[in-house]
Amino acid sequence: xxxxxxxGGGLVxxxxxxxxxxxxxxxxFNRYAMGWFRQAPGKEREFVAAIAWNGGSTNYADPVxxxxxxxxxxAKNTVYLQMNSLKSEDTAVYYCAASRWGWVTVGPNDYNYxxxxxxxxxxx
Length: 124
Description:
Helices cover about 0% and strands about 50% of the residues. It is an all-beta fold. A hairpin with a 4-residue loop joins strand 7 and strand 8 (about 80-85). The protein has strands at about 5, 10-15, 20-25, 35-40, 45-50, 60, 70-75, 80-85, 90-100, 115, 120-124.
């Protein structure tokens, strides 16, 4: 069982930065691939970024490539999402998720555990 708690969301102006963090409970965190998803009002949840269990590979959705960076610290049981050059279309609730698969995967059905989400609002 893995419990995930996101933090770091908030209100920021367009062009600004935020760093989200997701703290995981459990001793097996380093076996899981981790992902970030987001859901804007009236839209489906969408993939943002993912990182393999060992941090050796990552994947990003096209809208965030070059602006967002996912990383993890297995010693701290934490995964991060650094978000730069934020745009109004990045406004959403951001969720972190853990996948037993261990390797990078983009499908939400591949993830076994989810956090409660953190709101990110980008004002234009």
